[in-house]
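Hello,

Our lab assistant flagged a job as stuck in the queue for most of the afternoon. It eventually completed. Since we weren't sure the result was trustworthy after the delay, we are filing this so someone can double-check. Below is the sequence as submitted and the structure that was eventually returned. Let us know if re-running is recommended.
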Amino acid sequence: MRRRNRQNPAPFRCQAFTLAQRQNGMKVTTDACLFAAWVPLGQAQRILDLGTGTGLIALFAAQRCSAQIDALEIDAQSLAEAQDNFLSSPWADRIHAIHADLRDFAQHGSTDYDLILCNPPFFQHSTANPCSKKALARHNHALSSLELMQACKRLLKPQGVLWLLISCASFPAFQACAQALGFHRGQRLSLSTSAQTPAHRYFVEWRLEPCNESEAELQIYTEHPRHSPEARALLQDFYLQVH
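-- returned structure --
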């Protein structure tokens, strides 16, 4: 059996674009692909992808809509790789790579986004990965839940929508911050590997205006590696092949 090279992973090839991922602390994951394919984009004209990494979420969004998309990333090497991914895609004129710390960007950047999408660092009170890039991408030591939510509140239009991909364990912390800042929770999707396993991720919607809470579920596989019909329907316009 051929082993995967974790130090130099191969590019992740989709139907319309390719994601190089050698310089990024957070590689392409099925969870992020499903999030990017599922999250409602509505009629958004301006979208912000926070912590773009490889550019996955920004590129999925660009394929699904005609919005202008800003992709923010604090790590310079990760952003350079994402920029290359954007430039080689069909939507290079609509995706703008921005090298900045979110806290600084929220103070001096645009404040009229219709939609913010983010797969934030959500591991709390845990031993950070010895790789500094992975630690920055996965752990919230550098950016707390509260700081992230504060920045998002400043950057959104009053009618704007924030969608986060977070671990189930981190949801209470994000929810407490959201409530303290005046956010209202909308839909929450529970993502599990299969119908026999508990949820491990949430896709969560927060709005500044009052909205109704709702719940949904999604299983990735019926039996690994065969995707569930719902997951297959979401990924079929992106993946080269969906089992």
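-- support follow-up --
The delay was a queue issue, not a problem with the job. The result is valid. The chain has eight helices and twelve strands. The chain has one domain: 23-120+147-235.
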